[in-house]
Write a structure and sequence with these properties.
Helix content: under 10%
Bound molecules: 6-O-phosphono-beta-D-glucopyranose
Order of helices and strands: EEEEEEEHEEEEEEEEEEEEHEEE
Largest sheet: 8 strands, antiparallel
Number of strands: 22
Radius of gyration: 18 Å
Oligomer: single chain
Structural class: mainly beta
Length: 301
């Protein structure tokens, strides 16, 4: 793991500093003109984003673990190269390895428009090849401004094509998940993981979360708006290079069963994940690069 001393060259006085975060894991603390953020090298994990003058946009569990080999619970886990359980290998860790490995920062800068942009990379290694036998390079850029802009590039450095799944597993902070409207997925087909993976069609109109929800909306390229009357704001997730959207809330029993999630935290989060999973997994030719991006913006209502 990188020592915070080795990372000092990435600091920008008054704007970006490096510190030992929770569990001693190194993190960037960004205090930009238009927004603030925390980014751990562990998983390239954004755990906090707050526009200047606004409230935090991301949920982070008070019970999260911060340890090597463990995923952080909340923020934006980066999921690659498989989503959920690995097909044909039930012993493999859920959601792949990208969220539990240490990424390498390659660039930190401030743009003239005030946005602070961090770039982190993760390459294949003996460890990743044991789990997934391909060579690749991931490049993740995190732009912190009035909105949070995330872009994940996957480059195939193998001799042949490979197929992968990916997600920016965004945990949005909501006042009460039972009170929000989720718009943008009406009429779309989804895989209902709460009903043996049955495929269903979402009726038109806004979605209300009324129980444990775990759905993959296929062929969804449009944005999603979460209207939150309690927080008097809309959170708008727009995306490019992503054809699937995952909606997840564990509700009461599942929350209780998760040791890294507080029993009473479930009303305060909703995952709206920008993804390419299941039917929408990506096949990438050797030498090619695929880019998926998401922008998370807030409008006060
Ligand atoms: C969601 C999945 O994206 O992530 C759910 O659709 C899963 O099935 C959830 O329970 C959390 O996964 P994990 O591995 O972080 O507990």
């Amino acid at each position: 793991m990188s020592d915070t001393r080795d990372l000092q060259r990435f600091t920008i006085p008054g704007i970006v500093r490096v510190e030992a975060g929770e569990g001693g894991l190194p993190r960037f603390v960004v205090s930009g003109r238009d927004g603030a953020a925390h980014v751990y090298l562990h998983g390239a994990h954004v755990t906090h984003f707050q526009p200047t003058g606004g409230e935090p946009v991301l949920f982070l569990s008070g019970k999260s673990l911060y340890a090597e080999g463990k995923a952080i619970r909340g923020g934006v886990p980066v999921i690659f190269p498989w989503f959920g359980a690995k097909e044909g290998d039930s012993a493999a860790p859920a959601h792949g390895f990208a969220r539990v490995l240490d990424w390498e920062p390659t660039d930190v800068r401030q743009e003239s428009d005030g946005r602070v942009i961090l770039t982190l990379e993760l390459g294949s290694s003996d460890r990743t090849r044991k789990a997934w036998p391909f060579d690749f390079r991931l490049r993740y850029t995190i732009a912190v401004g009035r909105s949070l802009e995330l872009a994940l590039e996957v480059q195939n450095l193998s001799g042949g094509e490979f197929r992968f799944e990916e997600a920016l597993h965004t945990y949005l902070a909501v006042s009460d998940v039972r009170q929000v409207d989720v718009e943008g997925l009406g009429g779309k087909t989804y895989i209902d993981k709460m009903d043996s993976g049955r495929r269903k069609v979402q009726p038109p109109g806004a979605i209300r979360i009324e129980g444990e929800t775990d759905r993959v909306y296929l062929n969804t390229t449009d944005g999603v708006v979460v209207t939150d009357p309690g927080f008097k704001r809309d959170v708008i997730v727009t995306k490019q290079g992503s054809a699937a959207t995952v909606l997840w809330n564990p509700w009461i029993a599942k929350a209780k069963s998760m040791s890294d999630f507080g029993d009473d935290e479930w009303p305060h989060m909703l995952c709206v994940e920008t993804a390419n999973v299941s039917d929408n997994a990506v096949t990438l030719a050797p030498g090619a690069t695929h880019r998926m991006s998401a922008t998370i913006a807030v409008e006060i209502s």
